[in-house]
Design goal:
Length: about 280
């Protein structure tokens, strides 16, 4: 299991290295990822590209430290980091919700990023009793050149001096459209139940999965029989599509297996009519 994780992380790092030359002229290229990918052997890739950063979810029990204290001038080796920072005790959440969450941010050190100072964000839907989620960002607000005006319904358009520090975390929301499609592929369409280990083997099913998923998402816009499912839930569409497939399979098998002696013209017409309707 550990070897499989390592190989997938190496594959992800290899894919990033392949695409980065195309972004050489961009100021900020940011990887958005969940906690599965926030591992030392993947995040170290940001040291290879000057314009590459990462914003990722992390385990809430990840070991994080305060910045090292100021040197006192006394003899001895200076501390490499400050005290350990539990997310429930050392992060003061904002007085008001920013979007749907209370947030806190501070500069920290963590073993995942080595000696690099990163921003740690903690969020909670309930300020007093809610569970807390932890995020790391290697990009800082002052590094970002973005316009917030176009974010009409986003907390970004309300960003004042007190909220500027949370801009990197707000960018994490751009990851969700990808996450929704991946969730639907796995949960409703059963497209991700493959087990391969080679790089080519992984790429081929991924390409096939995405083509199949896109075809099913486009079907309600291309086939009149499914027009009404443009606004229906994916569960309803999946059920309707599976019913149509089941009926077509039934009539195809029925037409193939029925005895020649009872294949009357009327029966043929009925089957052809039903098949055309489907």
């Amino acid at each position: 299991m550990w070897q499989k994780k390592e190989s997938k992380l190496e594959l992800a790092a290899s894919m990033i290295r392949q695409v980065m030359p195309g972004f050489s002229g961009r100021k900020n290229v940011i990887i958005l990822c969940d906690s599965w990918y926030v591992k030392e052997n993947l995040v170290s890739i940001i040291d290879e590209c000057e314009n590459l950063d990462i914003i990722g979810n992390a385990r809430s029990d990840s070991v994080i430290y305060d910045l090292p204290p100021q040197r006192t001038g006394k003899r001895g080796r200076p501390a490499s980091h400050g005290k350990r920072l539990p997310v429930h005790d050392d992060f003061t959440l904002s007085d008001e919700k920013i979007g749907d969450y209370y947030m806190a941010a501070r500069h920290v050190l963590t073993n995942i990023f080595g000696r690099r100072t990163v921003l740690a964000y903690v969020t909670s839907a309930d300020k007093k009793n809610g569970s807390r989620r932890l995020f790391f960002s290697t990009v800082f607000p002052e590094q970002l050149q973005i316009s917030c005006a176009w974010q009409e319904k986003s907390p970004l358009n309300q960003t004042g001096s007190g909220r500027m520090q949370f801009i990197p975390l707000m960018l994490y929301a751009f990851r969700w459209p990808v996450e929704v499609s991946y969730y639907e592929q796995k949960t409703f369409w059963s497209l991700c139940s493959y087990m391969v280990r080679s790089r080519k083997g992984i790429e081929m099913p991924v390409n096939l999965i995405n083509i199949s998923y896109c075809a099913m998402k486009l079907l309600p816009y291309k086939n009149e029989a499914f027009f009404k499912y443009q606004t229906e839930s994916v569960q309803e569409f999946r059920f309707a599509l599976s019913e149509q497939i089941r009926q077509q399979v039934f009539y195809a098998i029925f037409a193939e297996k029925v005895e020649t002696s009872i294949k009357s013209n009327a029966l043929k017409q009925l089957i052809q009519k039903q098949g055309h309707h489907l």
